[in-house]
Q: What sequence folds into this?
């Protein structure tokens, strides 16, 4: 799950959770909802045992501070699975020059 959070500079929070913790809790509740059609694909340690967290946490959270006193959240239900399976390969480029 990738979340883009715009937080107004005048916003005051109640409680002691960080923005990351609040987003993770929302993602956890959404993915544990029996009506959720999306597959949990985040692994706890992509470089190690690759154990699925089963609730798509932790989410990737991008925070942007903006003027005002509101919070706007945009969610992209992607991440974890496809990014963990990507591979980058550099190919050698050969050039042939002809004279004549």
A:
């Amino acid at each position: 799950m990738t979340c883009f959070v715009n937080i107004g500079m005048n916003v005051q929070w109640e409680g002691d959770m960080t923005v990351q913790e609040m987003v993770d809790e929302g993602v956890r509740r959404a993915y544990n909802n029996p009506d959720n059609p999306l597959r949990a694909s985040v692994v706890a340690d992509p470089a190690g045992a690759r154990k699925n967290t089963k609730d798509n946490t932790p989410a990737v959270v991008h925070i942007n501070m903006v003027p005002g006193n509101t919070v706007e959240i945009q969610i992209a239900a992607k991440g974890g699975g496809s990014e963990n399976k990507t591979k980058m390969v550099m190919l050698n480029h050969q050039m042939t020059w002809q004279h004549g």
